[in-house]
Specification:
Blueprint lengths: L1 H35 L3 E10 L5 E12 L3 E3 L1 H10 L3 H16 L7 E5 L2 H5 L3 H12 L6 E5 L1 H5 L3 H12 L3 E7 L5 H7 L4 E4 L1 H5 L5 H16 L3 E4 L5 H10 L3 E2 L8 E2 H8 L11
Parallel strand pairs: 2-4, 4-5, 5-6, 6-7, 7-8, 8-9
Antiparallel strand pairs: 1-2, 1-9, 1-10, 2-3
Helix pairs in contact: 3-5
The structure holds ligand C2E and magnesium ion (3 copies).
The site of one magnesium ion has 4 residues, from loops.
């Protein structure tokens, strides 16, 4: 009887595993299909100067419009795209599209693009970025590449070499989700980032945790002393905005101003005047 129970449980787990692997396999196939079918789109979230209240740029955030499932979150599909290598062509498409979209904005407006660790393992990243800049003809300093601590986890020579090669082209490099990794501080020593983006979990905890407040302020002074800009992500309330401004952040991003939205909506809201399209004519 005990034996039977054991086997039953085993079969149950086995079936569960099969189902999970099947779901995963389907997602992989679906992603490859979606890339060919152009189901991906970039949405843009404004970055706001805390000094002037003006829009300084936009972060490109990938969206997947699935014909049956609706919008699928990048948190679900980016890790899979990384594992199956699709992030290489997909990431290249993102860089190109973001640079082309930026040509529709005033010439001081930046565009931020997220990069995956896998893109640093491919040989093509520097060439892709160079190509996107050449095709769009945007000034290199308008392109900001966001990397997370995961990119530096391996901390090998080729990663640093790639970062320096990108920087030598004039592109800006930002450290995203700062404070969530294993040894955040040591990564700041390995490369002179242009900007630190503190993870939004710290901003989220501002009102209900004294420690978060101390950390948020410490990161601002750290970045000031290292000569880096500091961006606060995930600002949802006026109070949080006031707090990060007082702490010395240069820039903010969050639902308080806007979530990521399609480019036409962004352009209508932020550049409704004659500015738009000038750079394309
Ligand atoms: P991330 O780069 O840290 O992007 C910020 C995330 O925080 C976005 O989630 C954004 O929608 C969300 N966010 C911004 N402001 C607020 C706020 O006030 N409240 C809340 N609750 N959330 C806010 P999203 O778009 O779901 O993207 C998740 C992650 O997926 C990104 O985190 C990034 O790591 C990754 N990702 C997105 N697009 C790309 C891409 O093109 N390439 C790569 N490699 N990764 C991407
Ligand atoms: Mg980012
Ligand atoms: Mg982030
Ligand atoms: Mg994140």
């Amino acid at each position: 009887r005990a034996k039977n129970d054991g086997r039953g449980i085993y079969r149950f787990f086995e079936a569960e595993m099969d189902a999970r692997m099947q779901t995963r396999r389907n997602l992989e196939l679906d992603l490859r299909r979606a890339f060919k079918a152009s189901e991906f789109e970039l949405h843009y979230q404004p970055l706001i100067s805390l000094e002037s209240d003006e829009v300084t740029g936009f972060e490109a955030l990938l969206r997947w419009h699935h014909p049956l499932r609706g919008n699928v979150s990048p948190a679900e599909f980016i890790p899979v795209a990384e594992e199956i290598g699709l992030i290489i062509p997909l990431g290249e498409w993102v860089i190109n599209q973001a640079c082309m979209d930026a040509t529709r904005w005033p010439s001081h407006t930046k565009v931020a693009v997220n990069l995956s660790p896998a893109q640093f393992r491919s040989e093509n990243l520097v060439n892709s970025v160079f190509g996107a800049l050449a095709r769009s003809r945007i000034a290199p300093h308008r392109l900001e590449l966001e990397i997370t601590e995961h990119v530096l986890l391996q901390h090998n020579e080729s990663t640093l070499h790639t970062l320096h090669a990108l920087r030598d082209m004039g592109v800006r490099i930002a450290m995203d989700d700062f404070g969530t990794g294993y040894s955040s501080l040591s990564y700041l020593r390995s490369f002179p980032f242009d900007k630190i983006k503190i993870d939004r979990s710290f901003i989220n905890d501002l009102s209900n945790q004294d420690e978060a407040d101390v950390i948020v302020r410490a990161v601002a002074s750290l970045s000031q002393n290292l000569g880096m800009m500091a961006t606060a992500e995930g600002v949802e309330t006026e109070t949080q905005r006031d707090q990060v401004k007082a702490a010395g952040y240069t820039e903010m991003q969050g639902f308080l101003v806007s979530p990521a939205r399609p480019i036409d909506e962004i352009n209508a809201r932020f550049f409704a005047d004659a500015c738009i399209g000038k750079s394309r004519l």
